[in-house]
Design a protein that fits this description.
Low-confidence stretches: 4-14
Helix content: 25-40%
Shape: globular
Strand order of the largest sheet: 4-7-8-9
CATH architecture: 3-Layer(aba) Sandwich
CATH topology: Trna Endonuclease, Chain: A, domain 1
Radius of gyration: 16 Å
Order of helices and strands: EEEHEEEEEHEH
Mean pLDDT: 87
CATH class: Alpha Beta
Number of strands: 9
Structural class: alpha+beta
Number of helices: 3
């Protein structure tokens, strides 16, 4: 498997790995296989997992648009979840799921003593609105919705 990767400096102490992913099994990918990007090493690992897992029948990355109300910007917006996947679960049932990859720190309200609490609170409120919209979307389309963090990716 070949990835075209570049390291993008975020701050003086944090870097993100970004690039284009070239699937080993392109027939499983729903969408343009020449435009599969990853925005972090976690997404790169998740791409590879979906691509190489024989139970994953089909998958796509950031191809589904879910409308939602952004409470921070006070306007309508679109949420592009990280993944849509179709796979065979442990009960041998075919399941479709929307999956979001996020740092654990962005899935809970920020701690009171953090110096960038306001920014983190805005990110958390936006994420909550997106995930509520995704949950409703999934209810109406017979899908499941899951958020995975570094704690579940690296186990």
């Amino acid at each position: 498997m070949t990835q075209k990767a570049r390291i993008i400096p975020k701050t003086k102490t944090t870097v993100y790995k970004q690039g284009l992913y070239i699937p080993k099994y392109p027939h499983k990918y729903v969408g343009d296989v020449t435009k599969i990007r990853y925005m972090s090493s976690w997404e790169l690992q998740t791409h590879a997992f979906f691509d190489n897992n024989p139970n994953v029948l089909r998958w796509s990355s950031e191809t589904l648009a879910i409308p939602y109300w952004n409470p921070v910007k006070d306007r309508a917006a679109k949420y592009y979840p990280d993944y849509w996947i179709e796979y065979i679960n442990s009960d041998r049932e075919v399941v479709q799921e929307i999956v979001e990859v996020k740092p654990k720190s962005q899935t809970t309200p920020p701690r009171a003593n953090k110096k960038n609490k306001l920014y983190e609170q805005l990110v958390f409120e936006t994420n909550k609105a997106k995930w509520m919209a995704a949950t409703e979307f999934c209810k109406h389309h017979n899908l499941q919705f899951r958020i995975i963090t570094e704690q579940s990716i690296f186990k």
